[in-house]
Amino acid sequence: MSEKYINELHSDHRQWLSELTLAKDEMKSFQLRLEEVNAANSDTETRAQVEHFQNQFIRENEVIDILKHDIAEYEKELAANVASNSTASDHRKVADHPELRDRMESFSHLFHELKGEFMDFVGRKL
Fold first, then answer.
1. CA 67, CA 55: separation in Å to the nearest integer?
2. Domain spans, the chain
């Protein structure tokens, strides 16, 4: 299992939380655009696509909330590690969490794909 310095992990967590917050904010604007598409188009195919994107946005928001929670839990572990032995904590390595790292990379990839698909859809419908 790989190890990283505590401050590196903390920095990764801050970066991930920032990315998740940005994604959540983007989805709010996507939802507004989706409402515009829905109002401007009444055909069955478009309504089905609107519903598809609404479901995708709901799911992505759930994933974001879960990832934020899990990152907060890892932050608590790091804080406990530092509190238990604060001496040279910035020079101490702890176990990395590759599973969370993989989940973040997967989220980022899937979110960018969804964003691209959604922008194409909006471009065709508005």
1. 18
2. 3-125
Distance CA 40, CA 82 (A): 55
Nearest to 29 by CA among 108, 91, 115, 88: 115
- Per-residue pLDDT reduced to its tens digit, 4-44: 999 999 999 999 999 999 999 999 999 999 999 999 999 99
How many residues appear in the chain? 126
Contact 30, 116 (CB under 8 A): no
pTM of this structure: 0.93
Which helix (H) or strand (E) segment holds residue 44: the answer is helix 44-84
Strands (E), 28-112: 93-95
Q: Are 62 and 107 in contact (CB under 8 A)?
A: no
The 8-class DSSP code of residue 41 comes to -
Measure Cα distances from 64 to 8, 9, 14, 45 in Å: 22, 19, 14, 29
Residue 95's alpha-carbon distances to 10, 20, 56, 77, 113, in angstroms, are: 13, 23, 33, 11, 31
